[in-house]
Write a structure and sequence with these properties.
Layout lengths: L1 H25 L44 H23 L2 H53 L4 H26 L4 H18 L6 H12 L4 H13 L14
Helix pairs in contact: 1-3, 1-4, 2-3, 3-4, 3-5, 3-6
Amino acid sequence: MNGYRRFSEQRLVYFAILLPLLLQGCTAYRLISPPESLFQDSNVKATADSTTSSVAPASNATATASDSAGAGAYVYEAFNRALQTALKKGPESAAGNDYNRLYHEGMGLIDYVCANYFRVLGRASQDMGFTRKETSLTGGVVSGMLGLANQTPKVIANTGALFGFTTASMDSYQDAYLFSPDVGAVQELVFNGFTTFKADHPSATTWGEVVSLLPQYEEKCQPHGIRRMINASLTKKPDNPPKPPSSGK
């Protein structure tokens, strides 16, 4: 009987050790790629015979159920047609409105791809938040079970350390790929940056302006650009700092 009890307690310890590893493996750890640059996106077609009415997602960051038809295909096709028109006429014949159309279609495509990117980040954040809470709850239950089974403090402490490592790993993933626990606030920050950029650069009338401004615009939805905006928002001083309270004199 005592041998069976010791065997059961050993199985409980093994279970406690394996559980955080299993939970970590079940989390939504996806290497979420940022949006492809317009200048590298395989869905951008410079020749009319390459334009299709259905496009594949540019990367796994933009993978949604509706990307192969509807809005996704239309946004890509609109940019492709504007690009083809400007290239067909050439720099000597293309008018400023041709380049301006290309510029605005490019910004629209970047907006669309960036929104899809944040939809994927939002789903991953939701999955991660749920798994992290479940891991913390499970860790408490397992520690309690080990205590009831009269396990040594060392075993209980080591088990808690394993669960702590699992949650720390989730935090590292969140920081590296999701930028913040509040993905919606990050998205708002990025799209406010888009709005400011559009106001500062409302048009582009030459090929040089197009290829100079569009990379600057899409950079705001790239990891390094997002990090820079987050850091800037954290260090930015308020325009109207609060006044110190009056002394009453």
